Amino acid sequence: MISLRAVKLHRTHLRLRMPFRYGIATLTELPHVILAFTFEIDGRVATGVAADHLPPKWFTKDPVRAPKDEIEDMLEVIRAAVDHAFGVKAATVFEFWRELYAAQAVWAAEEKIAPLLAQFGTSLVERGLIDAFGRMHGAGFAAGLRANIFGVDLGTLWPELVGSAPRDWLPAVPAEAITVRHTVGLGDPLVDGDIPPEERLNDRLPQALDACARVYGLRHFKLKINGEEPRDFERLARMAKIFAKECAGTDWRFSLDGNESFREVGAFADYARRLMAAPELKTLWPRLLFIEQPWHREVALSDAIGELARAWPDRPPIIIDESDAETGSLPAALALGYAGTSHKNCKGIFKGVANACRLAQRRAAGEPGMLSGEDLANVGPVAVLQDLAVQAALGVESVERNGHHYFAGLAAWPTAVQDHVLKHHGDVYCRAVVAPHWPRMDVRMGEVRIGSLTRTPGLGAVPPPLDGLAAEEL
To answer: Which tens digit of pLDDT belongs to each residue from 257-299?
Structure first.
């Protein structure tokens, strides 16, 4: 049997090296938490970790609520999930997650907390348990899925998958590298001349889009739009020229992120058709991977989407992201005509595993089945490593990564943590060649090597030393 014995929450505060504008928010600083878990598993003590940012204006996108209140909301759902987890006893990791998910859902409904936010708390406990169980058994996440040591029962989430297991649908061997899909935020400078003198960085890392493409060898991009058509058009036209120059001779690709900017279903279709008809943008569309969540969550899973899909048969692939809040979200989206969904660890790992398997099953049958890898500006020493390990296990090859762009690598962490990450994950991180020599993600030719993450027992990241970080017992 599996039971939770203790949890410690470590909290630190991180500042971005440059502002990140996404949707209705511009992020300049935020809290980051690392949770250390102690479980009892079949009479043995096992420990695991999980981590994430607490990003305002993503889980709820409430334009009125103060960021500090949203941060407290995130801490509340974490504490609630831990409290519920103390009451769970289960025979398998998957059963533990299912019971915790259900308890958190009942509590959230009573408290009128949105599922996407509520299950963020569940996901952190889930990550910690997967890490602890894998470490105890000496198995990395992908290997654990293939052997099904977690007891995943796909049929409980997708009737279409009854009788099958993750190994039937997921890669036999996880990738050793992933392609970085570089985020271009709504306020990001596109060329050096866009950077005001007072905002120019002196950390020797690229800042503008053209420099990032050149230095990192990027060939996949995620372009943020917000529905302000003249502004979106102007930025897309400029980016098309940058890609033509900096990515010449490569098979460069991009996705569009609508960040829930459209509340009227038909308005986005009209907007997209106008963009796609513009001569200045004609070089972009053959390279489009997909469009991510253009509609606000209030309408994104409405019947009007299905009506639009039937009236727009030549639409580009469109996936959900923020609307993938519950285990029933993707089935509803596929029925409406969406092409698939995204995976982020903050939305739940086992939900992501089941979704990946169902989408693979659809592809095998010749139906749309797209799974993307997206990001919450995640960073080390734990969160981004665990997310990459899961993406590799699910077979996602192009993953949005932007934590290395908006944050100064591991500069905010103690030297002991920096040295630890370089020692255990020297393929993912390298030390900056100029002072002060803090570790940064090692993006080369548009890729990050991740072999250490797929081989590490647990959920990818060797747990770092957390001494000296502010902590509280939960």
So the answer is: 999 999 999 999 999 999 999 999 999 999 999 999 999 999 9
Same domain membership, residue 23 and residue 161:
yes
Q: Are 21 and 112 within 8 A, CB to CB?
A: no
| Burial profile 208-232: b = 16 or more Cβ within 10 angstroms, e = fewer | bbbbbbeebbbbbbbbbbbbeeeeb
Co-location of 193 and 278 in the same domain: yes
In tens, the pLDDT along 15-42 reads: 999 988 887 788 899 999 999 999 999 9
Residue 176's pLDDT is: 96
Q: Check whether residue 321 and residue 182 sit in a common domain.
A: yes
**415: nearest Cα among 362, 464, 375, 349:** 464
Residues 193 and 248 in one domain: yes
Q: Which helix (H) or strand (E) holds 36?
A: strand 25-41
429 is in which domain, residue-wise?
170-455
In a domain, 467, yes or no: no
* Distance in angstroms (rounded) separating the CA atoms of residues 332 and 60: 20
Domain boundary, last residue among 138, 166, 194: 166
Q: pLDDT per residue over 183-228, tens digit each?
A: 999 999 999 999 999 999 988 899 999 999 999 999 999 999 999 9
Token representation of residue 120: 């963020």
Do residues 381 and 445 both lie within one domain?
yes
pLDDT confidence bin for 156, thresholds 50/70/90: very high
Compute the C-alpha angle 351/354/359, nearest 5°.
120
The predicted model scores a pTM of 0.97
CB atoms within 10 A of CB 468: 11
Domain boundary among the residues 121, 141, 166 is at: 166
